[in-house]
Amino acid sequence: MTPNVIALVADDGRTWTVNVADESVKIKGLGVFNPAHLVAEHSMGSSVTLAGKRLTLLPARLPEVRKGMLRRAQTIGDKDAGIIVSRLGIGRDDTVLEAGLGSAGLGLHVSRALGPSGHHITVEPREEHAHVGLANLEQAAHAWPDSPRHSHLNALAEDCAGDVQALAPNGLDAVVLDMADHTPAIAALAPLLGPGGRMACYCPVTSQLERAWEACETAGLDIDWAGEVMERPWSKASRGGVRPANGPFGHTAFLLIAQRRSA
Asked: What is the torsion angle, in degrees rounded to the nearest 10, for the CA atoms of residue 80, residue 83, residue 87 and residue 91?
């Protein structure tokens, strides 16, 4: 079966995701080629050469789509996205609101987790960010035919509770907030969580974490977990063995997970 989207991965890790269309396309860094002909002539895992670059043809799974995504706003990395998706406990049949879509770095993970029976509602007040984030989600939906239903609101999170209720009349299973001031959004959206539903707040600094914590408690939510996820990459040493890789590692943001435990 011919895939809708492929990934072309260079030896240095640079990744391009390409729609498989039977027409010549021009892609920055790769030149002009026909993706359908490329797929017909090469199997997955094959090496191909485009514009003088040696590339490996691979399926467009979540890591490849993330690497090849368009970028504008700073994205939530896969380290934090994985923890958010896991601790929210989201999956098929769930309705999830993501406010602060940005470039959809987290949105790709949410979409992949929900599957075809889920509903992914995104909110982003800045049109320039929404344009990029929605393009990335559209590419993901093309790559993964079993993506969830998607609805988007171009608004501030605290101003869209009524519209969210209309989209999700049975309530929300999870809410994710990535914004400078979480407090108004928590007050507006926490009442839309069903019993057992969870809210995640992405907080780059401790003052945001503290305000989000207090706002969640004021809204009647119980704090499930708060903390940060540290990441330490390792690499092979030139003289054998493995060692911590050179370069920065560690903190990206503080995360807060809160749950509605009563009706």
From this structure: 100
Domain boundaries 78-259, CATH class: alpha beta
Q: Which residues of 16-25 are buried (b: 16+ CB within 10 A; e: fewer)?
A: bbbbbeeeee
203: three-class secondary structure by DSSP: strand
Site of tokens 């040696």:
54
d(CA 77, CA 234) in angstroms, rounded, equals 18
Residue range 5-60 forms a domain whose CATH class is alpha beta
Q: What is the 3-state secondary structure (H, E, C) of 55-75?
A: EEEEECCHHHHHHCCCCCCCC
Helix (H, G, I), strand (E, B), or coil: what is residue 131? helix
Select from 113, 169, 122, 173 the least CA-distant residue to 146.
113
**Along the chain (263 residues), what's the average pLDDT of each consecutive run of 10 residues?**
95 96 96 97 97 97 96 89 97 98 97 97 96 97 97 98 98 97 98 98 97 98 96 89 82 94 86
209 phi, psi to nearest 5 deg: -60, -45
Tell me the C-alpha distance between 162 and 147, whole Å: 25
Q: Domain boundaries in the chain?
A: 5-60, 78-259
Query: How many Å separate Cα 251 from the centre of its chain?
Result: 19
